[in-house]
Design a protein that fits this description.
The protein has 113 residues and is α+β, with helices and mostly antiparallel strands. The protein is elongated, with a radius of gyration of 37 Å.
């Protein structure tokens, strides 16, 4: 019990001194300097929802899959009518499509709906 009383007295004597009425009045007249820095929020990158993949179905009987967007590019595969392909990108009238996990190329947009 004596230990608790000594600890309580020690705590009271260390840091519990209350200011007097005159000290309160001096505080009201003393200008307070704000030491907090104003932090402007930084723009975070826009959150884009993950879009569902877009597929189209080949409408031509045979459709050339090309290495680049144009008939001057090499044919790398031939697609069959009703084959579904995943659209990756569009470049003008050409669609970059993925036909499986390893192969992608370009087809004309008029032959895939």
């Amino acid at each position: 019990m004596k230990k608790y009383l000594l600890i309580a007295l020690l705590i009271l004597s260390i840091g519990c001194q209350l200011p007097t009425a005159s000290q309160y009045s001096n505080l009201a007249e003393t200008p307070v300097q704000n030491s907090l820095a104003i932090v402007k929020p930084t723009a975070s990158p826009p959150i884009t929802p993950t879009a569902k993949p877009i597929y189209c179905t080949v409408t031509a009987h045979i459709l050339n899959l090309r290495q680049g967007p144009g008939t001057n590019h090499e044919i790398i595969a031939r697609l069959k009518k009703a084959q579904k392909v995943k659209i990756i990108n569009r470049e003008g009238n050409w669609l970059k499509v993925q036909i499986n996990k390893k192969q992608s190329g370009y087809i004309h947009k008029n032959y895939c709906h």
